[in-house]
Specification:
Asp/Glu-ADT_sf_sub_c, about 100 residues
């Protein structure tokens, strides 16, 4: 990837994440992104053709608990500490459809 594409990708991800990044941060994340891709390339070079896949790494027995219904909090209790609420619902900033 070229440096320009990496910067554009970082800027796009920041916008989608609703983050405002400084130019130094974009450069830092771009370099980190480059390092991550380099590491992935190294992993792709590893010969694993004779290695069996791991399906489950946890060997110990799994214990399941009985599913017992319990009480829950009321709607009023749930929203009492919310920064904003309207009509019994949480009010949050819009994050979808802003492009």
């Amino acid at each position: 990837m070229t440096n320009q594409i990496e910067k554009e990708l970082i800027e796009k991800v920041a916008k989608l994440s609703n983050l405002k990044l400084k130019e130094e941060e974009i450069e830092l994340f771009s370099n980190q992104f480059k390092d991550i891709l380099s590491f992935i390339d190294k992993l792709n070079e590893v010969d694993v053709k004779d290695t069996l896949p791991f399906y489950e790494l946890q060997i110990e027995e799994k214990s399941e608990r009985e599913d017992i219904p319990t009480g829950s909090i009321t709607n009023e209790e749930a929203i009492k500490n919310a920064p904003q609420a309207k009509g019994g619902f949480f009010v949050v900033p819009r994050v979808v459809g802003e492009e």
